Amino acid sequence: MKLGNRTLIGIGLYTPAEAGRLIEVSSARLVRWLRGHDVKGKRYDPLWEPEVNLDDEKTYLSFRDLLEARVAARFIDQGLSAQKVRRAIQLASEVVGERPLSTTWLKTDGRSVFLEVIREDGNEPGLLDLFKRQYAFNAIVERSLRDIDFDGPMPKIWWPRGRAMGVLIDPLRSFGQPIERDTSIPAETLANAAVAEGSAQAAARAWCVPVQAVRRAVIFQRQVEKKKAA
Q1: 158-230, what's its fold?
Q2: Which residues of 143-154 are buried (b: 16+ CB within 10 A; e: fewer)?
Q3: Using the 8-state DSSP alphabet, how is residue 51 labeled?
Q4: β pairing state of 148-151 and 154-158
Q5: Residue pLDDT, tens place only, 17-76
Q6: 3-class SS at 221?
């Protein structure tokens, strides 16, 4: 979707590198999924069309793209091919409309659609294998939705390192960058302040926020930066 003059508020904006650190997927992999790629002369289409197109020939993810890529990655890591994930998205879109991987649809019909895709090549797996896959898919669905707050069927807020971490992503605030729960200040800003001021206590005084808010931001950023360095 091309935004034109539309605002990005409420949509979120992430580069593949930023998104990759949050969902623990390489940026190159995200680009392949969203732009498609060629292998030995064969063209593989994108898994879905990204929500954001700024007409600068670069790849960006929206908040919903981010959550969808997170789910797709989990399915692929469990052995489902990217082609089958693409087919599952197509089938699901016929049932629930656009963006099926970022709705509560996954709690119900999502499981049967993915199982149907596994069998579509005619090579029906054995009962035990099917059971194992279904168990894995159910676990993926539960993990994928556990840390998301929904507004009806649509995702509203994501807690990227769990609710206990105290850092959330809300596309309506700070263009979807991770923010500290109690202050709504970007986690990166508070973490950088702790470095600049020499301690979490000094940063808290400078920003007039609780020390715990700074500490939460520091811990979160350390985890994100650790993924960046990995």
Answers
A1: Arc Repressor Mutant, subunit A (1.10.10)
A2: ebbebbeeeeee
A3: S
A4: antiparallel
A5: 999 999 999 999 999 999 998 888 889 899 999 998 888 889 999 999 999 999 999 999
A6: helix
